[in-house]
Here is the input.
Amino acid sequence: MNVPLARPDITKKERQTVMSVLKTPILSLGPWLSKFEEAFAKFIGVKHAIAVNSGTSGLHLVVKSLGIKDGDEVITSPFTFISSATCMMFERARPVFVDIDPLTMNIDPKKIAKAITKKTKAILPIDVFGHPAEWDQILKIAQKHHLKIIEDSCEAIGSEYYSKIKKKWLECGQFGEAGVFAFYPNKQMTTGEGGLIVTDDDKIAELCRSMRNQGRGGDQKWLDHVRLGYNYRISDINCALGYVQISRIKEIMRKRATVAKMYHRHLKKIKEIILPYVAPNVKMSWQAYIIRLNNNFSREQRDKILDLLRKNGVGCNNYFPSIHLQPLFTKSFGYKRGDLPVSESISDRTIALPFFNNLSEAQIKYVAKILGAAVKQIGFVL
Ligand SMILES: *Cc1c(COP(=O)(O)O)cnc(C)c1O
Here is the structure.
């Protein structure tokens, strides 16, 4: 049996809608861009949504619109996708890594204060794999130290967090000055390639709209450029796809929750692994399904298990290797093994299993069987 790691869920509706755009002459900056943005803003419950060509572009524009610049520091987590830690480097600001909470795998709020210096301008927490960060505590720290918050919610569309301070459930993407989503095909919803910024701040929204479109002014006259900008536009073809996907987001989230539940049922008998944790004050929108081997396993053993899974047709990956140990970061900032022990230890033992909307119970049973056998074999041999 072959079970891929991820698959988008594209229906006839998406295909028809994309085809309808191709029958018009307007393929960029057309009606689907605003339709997609409006539907997205409504779903999250924010004033502005600005669609761009990737999550990374979105993060970069938020960093720029907050005025983060050469010499500034931005606190973030080492256990995430690379662009959470490179988006400030585009502006010559420095990422400062704070270790993670061993349960949620998100930035550990207890360790943030120690990392704050005179140069710290912002905190950039990630809602990793769809699990919201510990927002109440993070917001308190940010307020106390006058720091901006950038929320990397690229993996968390639809996830909710119960704020004890505000006494209500809040959607991920709403916690910072701005939040950023991403639509690569392995996320909950896709536009092929794409990303989107959400914010209630008029100034940030205006700057992001201008900078995604070559720094054009508010009236967007084609040859008037008022600031340094980029081509971070997303085409109407992609936006049409995104519009149908966001219209289906509740259905998509339900399907993924069902898959997660089935995994739980079939994996809980494997004693050597730890299943994903969901905090009680959280409603999870599942981006990926990440299990961990227990502490008796080494990184080498984990890698052998990944090989065995792949040999048997089970797509998998080691999400995430700790970013501070990537060559770019050891070279640029002198980070080394031992600096962030929780993230390192977790990075050595995680396995992302196949996870997508239409994963069948038969496929899940097969993954459980192969994983159970691989864990026994590798754990026993060494
Ligand atoms: C996917 C992702 C991004 C951005 O991804 P793009 O490939 O640029 O769209 C950023 N941060 C996290 C945590 C992600 O998972």
